[in-house]
Amino acid sequence: MPLDFEELDYQETHLGALSLRRRADPRLGGEIVYEIKLGDEFLMSSRFTTGETQLATLALAGLAGSDLDVVVGGLGLGHTAVAVLKHPSVRSLRVIEVMEPVIEWHRRGLVPLGGALTADPRCTLVHADFFEWALTGERREDGGSSWPVHAVLLDIDHSPSHWLVPGNRAFYSDDGLRRLAEKLHPGGVFGMWSDDPPDSEFTGLLLSVFGSCEPRVVTFPNPYTGDESACTIYLARRCGR
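The chain above was modelled as a monomer; its predicted structure follows.
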């Protein structure tokens, strides 16, 4: 019988106190819920994963061919990464995560999807800052794949204007997005999750940088409110063949 609440890990990081929690939610009939908190802020819950999985599903649906190389920015509880690996056309996946404890949770089996990710030879978990990677002009071998890649999927900040740390702001600019676009094959896709409704200014910026952009609103039931909640998936495609 599971405990009503367990703190599976707690560590101080350069971004603040990071904790992994597991609890039985009485409002959901005792369903086991995994949560990640940074300080007092909830980063992710296993109860709400539709946005994470749809980020992968919608982005990869627009890519043709096989032997696709994919990068995911932000590991979390692993739902976006697992959704990527469900596509048989994916040859390699690199998940870039700035907080090393999150990677260790998966390697130690503390989260439900850790085993699936660490056992898949296509998947490499990389301890690095996604935004530093996105803003660098380097093209190098890293984790078994080389630049450019076919898709980059981002799920780190809450929205293009609500960042976990102020330093992430530089990425959401014309210069930052153009540097990322250089890491995509022509026709490659940049997908991004946002907790906010579609932002017309950011959509226009993606359109000017990539040549194509479509924000998709994804809805899902919220058992706590008895209503629907929603998130936004931005899908930008780099023009060219």
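The chain has a mean pLDDT of 92.
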